[in-house]
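tool_call: predict_structure(chain=1)
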Amino acid sequence: MIIDEIQNALREHSLDGWLFFDHHRRDPLAYRILALPEDISATRRWYYFVPANGEPTKLVHRIESGTLDTLPGQKLSYSSWVDQRNKLSGLLAGHARIAMQYSPDCAIPYVSLVDGGTVELVRELGAHVVSSADLVQQFEARWTEEQLEMHLEAGRRVDEARREAFRFIAERLRSAEPVSEYDVQQFIADRFSAAGLVADHDPHVCVNANSSDPHYNPARDRSAPISWRDLVLIDMWAKLAQPNAVYYDITWTAFCGETIPAEIENVFEVVKGARTQASEFVIQNVAAGARFAGYQVDDVARGYIEARGFGEFFFHRTGHSIGTDVHGTGANMDNLESHDERRVIAGTCFSIEPGIYLPRFGIRSEVNVYVGEKFAQVTGEQQEELVRL
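tool_result:
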C-alpha cells in the first residue's frame, strides 16, 4: 500500500520517481518510510527506485542480496562499481525528474542525507535531482490519531511537571534552602520518569544571563543558584514511554518575586504577542483552507518582534517540526536559519517559540500547534503572564 501512496504523491508533484539510497544506515528516513527491518545490514550500497508508474526496482550488492527483500519490485544485483553504475543507469533511464533525500544548499538539513557524490552520479546518468522534502513530510511527519492522543496525554503530564517544578523553586526560596538550576533539572527528570515520560535529554533550566543562551543546559559541575529577584526559564520536552509516541515541547518563564521589573515584563509581553500572532496566523489560515509555508509563519512572529525594536535579539527560527524525535522532519517555521518553503500540511505538529535574548536575561514562550483537516489548535496550556514565585 505504501508504494501505491508514494506513486500517487509522485504524480501529484509531477515527479518521475523517488530514488532511495543508503550505505551504512546513513539515511534513517528511508528505513522508516519503507518500513525496512531494524536488523538490515548495509555495509554495501543499495538503491530502491519507485517510479511514478510501474514496478519498483531494487539494486543491491551480491554480498547483501537480501537487503531489500521485504519490498516489492524487480531485484537487480551488482558486484563491481562498473556493474553498479551501468545498472543504475538502466534503472533510471527514461526518468527525468527524480526525488532524493537532498536539499539545495542544504537548506533543510533534516532531509539532506544523500552524499554529494551520489547526487553527482545520478545527475551524470541524466536525471534531474530534486528534493524529496515535501514527500518526506507527507510520509514521515504526519501523525496518526493515536499519536495525537499520545501527544495530548504527554502534554498533560509535562504541564503538571512544569507546575510542580515552579512550586519546588518557590518552596525552596521561602524556606531559605539552596536551590540551583541543576536541582530543578533533576527534579523535572525525576517527575518525568515517575509519570511514564521519556526524553532524549534533560530539560534546560536557565537563570538570568544563562537564559540568554537558547541551548544553555546546566550540569552537576556547571549550575547557577536560584535566588530572589532572579528570572528562571525552563525548556522541557518529553513523550510517553510507548512505541511511536510523539513529543510535547514547551518553554515557560518565571520571576522569583512579587514585583516584576518593567523591562522583563515588557519583553515577555512582546514575546507572547509574537507567539499569539503566529499561532493565530496558522489557525485562521487552516480554517480558511489557505495554503501557507513554514517561512510565512516565521515572518509573522519575526515581524512582530522587529516592529517593537527587538529584531536583532531574536536569532533563531520561530519553530520546528515535532514527531517521534523532538525535532521532526516536517516543515519548520523558519525564514532565518533557512527559507523553508514546504507547505504546512494536515496531520503535522510544530513548535512556535519566539524569543528575545538580551545580555542580562532572555525570554522564550513555546507552544505546540497541531494542524488537522480544516482545523488547527494549540495543544496545551499557553503562558499568558510571567509566573510569580
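agent: The two ends are 54 Å apart (CA to CA). Proceeding to next step.
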